[in-house]
């Protein structure tokens, strides 16, 4: 059977009447910030063209504002800006004339990053720093006219269509919801009036662009807001959009201010597509679904169930530009899967940094990180098969170097073998699977259960040795640290040491949080079961109350333990976690009853428990177990020995620097070094 026949739905074309989309795989809209950088459009052209060559049927760009009030760094409203966008559309159509590219029109409304945000009413969002200015009638007409102009400009720039975002707490959606729209004129009050603004935007865009231009409306099919949109309101809006000439409805599942995770790695795959499926039954136009669809089999089953007509994968296309081609050719095991960590994509966006991808540092950096074939093959030993060593070995071998990869453990992955055991981090298995496949494909010689020594490496005569030996856990210098109550996080995660009922966790970094999650879990993991996930986050998929969550109490199964997470810093516990995911971990642990205390000083551990000062108050915490999660130190003895022998040696990953190390930095550093060797 040809490989693509495994995915008959994914690889069937979609007929829109005036045009066809070659398959059902969409690269969904994702803000990269490229358009705001010098040479950003050139970079964006290369980035999107690579994805077009990678087999997607349609691409939607990141959001572009129609005017300065719209709030994005980049806008499209005049002939000069049209020329910039032409670079992108041309590059995509040159790469594959059958790939459609649509531009997303994003008016951020009250969430705009400017001094003068506008909204239907002067109501500040929980996540905004400014109260928006209420639009008057003329202001509303101006916003509509600017959005129409933006769509016309997009058409002139060579886009095949536009998507207008009507969700997430951005301008259009704030007209729909009572709590953000308290107007009493024709744009507020009863739902028919609140709907008027988004409907007028789409109706007038259709009039201006004519019938042969793809028009997509992004709707919040479940906005996750207490008192958000009701199901009937959503259906009515979608039907109205169909009536005014929208070709495709794209379903979205949140407002940014909601307190329910919808894309983090703890969310089960395809958790929300059933909502799209319900809406599909009400409409005659195609629907796009999204969120946590990261592999072709997931996409295929969503389509086969009839949940949607098109499957959107945004982050997965950052992680692997060739995802669709690999599925088509039966090379699924070569897919570098998005692990939904948000660490290099959304966290960067929200921190004002350049976007990339933890598992693929080339993402958005295609113009300057390339893995060209080497002109001079080297014989390279890489010691350590954690993320840093794996990335180095893969890139170096891909470029034609001869690579031998050593690890003392019986499997590759390094600390990812601990991470994958944390509830909600099951996606880390995929990265290990990917590297195992790459080792085979690139012909890397792997020596497991082999602790490399300087003598052996010297004797084997490598041109270069790369030391990626990672870290050793920091053991704080505290009286009683060798007491039987004190255990290392590694032994806890591996299940080597038992954990008592009363537990103190010393150190509240990423690992402290992960360990708390692991020991407080009971029953099935939410990330693997949509019903449990819905219960834990208070979502009612069946009855769809307002927002999907109104009046639904989260129900969390927790282990029979008392756990306290401790840190010395006086900053709020968990502040250093990821910008877009940290809050989910803090809420999840708080619901499991984990106490969090900052500003502590550890004194000693003995039979009585953990002695400490909490804000100048002496306390003995009566605990059975103290789990040490106090950070890490670089493991680089091997490097020193090799350097002493005069061998060409390089450090990478945790071995290079353990402070603030994460897999993003380890893979990024290794990839750049291996691209240059
Ligand atoms: P390591 O992963 O530590 O790998 C080093 C390897 O070297 C090991 O396999 C070891 O066996 C081998 N080795 C050492 N000495 C020798 C020798 N002499 N000979 C042969 N082999 C040797 N990071 C994130 O970015 N996001 C997360 O969500 C995340 N979650 C985590 C959760 C947990 C529970 C843990 C423990 C870590 C997590 N991390 C996370 C951190 C991330 O895993 C590390 O930053 C990353 O693994 C560091 O990569 P590395 O290759 O430098 O080192
Ligand atoms: P970490 O984030 O640096 O946290 C270490 C913790 O130990 C801190 O809370 C620190 O806080 C405490 N500490 C440091 N020195 C200490 C000492 N001498 N005595 C007692 N406590 C001490 O490191 P980590 O938790 O080990 O994580 C390692 C890396 O993996 C991190 O860089 C992290 O980004 C990554 N990771 C990421 C995630 C994720 O979800 N993104 C998850 C897990 C791990 P105080 O000094 O205030 O006590
Ligand atoms: Fe996916 Fe993480 Fe890469 Fe973002 S950084 S695309 S979430 S793997």
Describe this structure in words.
The chain has 22 helices and 27 strands. With 677 residues, it is α/β, with parallel strands linked by helices. It has three domains: 250 residues, Aldolase class I (TIM Barrel), CATH 3.20.20; 138 residues, 3-Layer(aba) Sandwich (Rossmann fold); 121 residues, FAD/NAD(P)-binding domain, CATH 3.50.50. Strands 3-4-5-8-9-10-11-12 form an eight-stranded parallel beta barrel, surrounded by seven helices. Strands 15-14-13-16-27 form a five-stranded parallel beta sheet, sandwiched between helices. A five-stranded parallel beta sheet has the order 18-25-19-20-21. α13 links the parallel β13 and β14. The model has no long low-confidence stretch (mean pLDDT 96). Bound molecules: flavin-adenine dinucleotide, NADP nicotinamide-adenine-dinucleotide phosphate and iron/sulfur cluster (SF4). NADP nicotinamide-adenine-dinucleotide phosphate binds next to α18.
CATH architecture of the largest domain: Alpha-Beta Barrel
* Biggest beta sheet summary: 8 strands, parallel, barrel
Number of strands: 27
- Classify the helix fraction into a percent range: 25-40%
* Strand line-up in the sheet with most strands: 3-4-5-8-9-10-11-12
- By helix and strand content, what is the structural category? alpha/beta
Quote the beta fraction. Answer: 15-25%
């Amino acid at each position: 059977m040809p490989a693509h026949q495994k995915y008959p739905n994914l690889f069937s074309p979609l007929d829109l009447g005036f045009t066809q989309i070659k398959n059902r795989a969409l690269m969904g809209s994702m803000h990269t910030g490229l358009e705001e950088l010098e040479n950003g459009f050139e970079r964006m052209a290369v980035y999107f063209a690579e994805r077009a060559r990678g087999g997607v049927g349609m691409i939607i760009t990141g959001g572009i504002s129609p005017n300065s009030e719209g709030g994005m760094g980049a806008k499209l409203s005049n002939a000069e800006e049209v020329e910039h966008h032409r670079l992108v559309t041309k590059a995509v159509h040159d790469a594959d004339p059958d790939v459609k590219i649509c531009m997303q029109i994003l008016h951020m409304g009250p969430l705009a990053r400017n001094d003068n945000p506008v909204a239907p009413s002067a109501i500040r969002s929980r996540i905004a720093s400014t109260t928006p200015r209420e639009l008057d009638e003329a202001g509303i007409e101006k916003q509509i006219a600017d959005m129409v102009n933006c769509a016309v400009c997009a058409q002139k720039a060579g886009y095949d269509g536009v998507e207008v975002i009507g969700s997430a707490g951005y301008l259009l959606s704030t007209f729909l919801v009572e709590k953000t729209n308290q107007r009493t004129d024709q744009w507020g009050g009863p739902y028919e009036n609140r709907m008027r603004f988004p409907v007028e935007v789409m109706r007038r865009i259709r009039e201006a662009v004519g019938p042969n231009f793809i028009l997509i409306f992004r709707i919040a099919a479940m906005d996750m807001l207490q008192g958000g949109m009701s199901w009937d309101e959503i259906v009515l809006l979608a039907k109205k959009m169909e009536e005014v000439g929208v070709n495709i409805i794209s379903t979205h599942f949140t407002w940014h201010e909601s307190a329910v995770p919808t894309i983090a790695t703890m969310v089960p795959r395809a958790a929300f597509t059933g909502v799209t499926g319900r809406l599909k039954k009400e409409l005659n136009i195609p629907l796009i679904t999204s969120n946590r669809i990261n592999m072709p089999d997931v996409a295929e089953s969503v389509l086969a169930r009839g949940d949607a007509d098109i499957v959107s994968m945004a982050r997965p296309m950052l992680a692997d530009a060739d995802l669709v081609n690999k599925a088509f050719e039966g090379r699924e095991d070569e897919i570098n899967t998005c692990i939904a960590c948000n660490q290099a994509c959304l966290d960067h966006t929200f921190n004002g940094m350049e976007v990339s991808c933890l598992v693929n540092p080339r993402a958005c950096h295609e113009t300057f990180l390339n893995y060209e074939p080497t002109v001079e093959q080297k014989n390279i030993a890489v010691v350590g098969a954690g993320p840093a060593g794996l990335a180095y070995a893969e890139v170096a071998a891909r470029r034609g170097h001869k690579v031998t990869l050593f690890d003392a453990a019986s499997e590759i992955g390094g600390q990812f073998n601990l991470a994958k055991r944390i509830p909600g981090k099951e996606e880390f298995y995929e990265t290990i699977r990917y590297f195992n496949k790459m080792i085979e494909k690139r012909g890397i010689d792997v020596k497991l259960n082999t602790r490399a020594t300087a003598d052996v490496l010297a004797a084997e005569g490598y041109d270069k040795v790369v030391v990626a030996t990672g870290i050793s856990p920091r053991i704080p210098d505290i009286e009683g640290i060798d007491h039987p109550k004190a255990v290392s996080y590694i032994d806890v995660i591996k299940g080597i040491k038992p954990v008592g009922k009363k537990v103190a966790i010393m150190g509240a970094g990423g690992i402290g949080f992960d360990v708390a999650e692991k020991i407080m879990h009971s029953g099935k993991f939410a990330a693997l079961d949509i019903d449990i996930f819905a219960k834990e986050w208070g979502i009612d998929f069946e009855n769809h109350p307002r927002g999907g969550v109104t009046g639904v109490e989260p129900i969390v199964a927790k282990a029979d333990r008392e756990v306290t997470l401790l840190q010395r810093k006086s900053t709020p516990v968990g502040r250093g976690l990821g910008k877009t995911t940290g809050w989910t971990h803090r809420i999840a642990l708080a619901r499991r009853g984990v106490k969090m205390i900052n500003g502590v000083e550890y004194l000693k551990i003995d039979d009585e428990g953990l002695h400490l000062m909490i804000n100048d108050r002496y306390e003995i915490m009566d605990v059975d177990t103290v789990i040490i999660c106090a950070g890490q130190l670089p493991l680089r003895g091997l490097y020193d020995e090799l350097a002493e022998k005069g061998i060409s040696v390089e450090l990478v990953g945790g071995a290079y620097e353990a402070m603030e190390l994460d897999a993003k930095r380890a893979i990024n550093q290794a990839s750049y070094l291996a691209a240059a060797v």
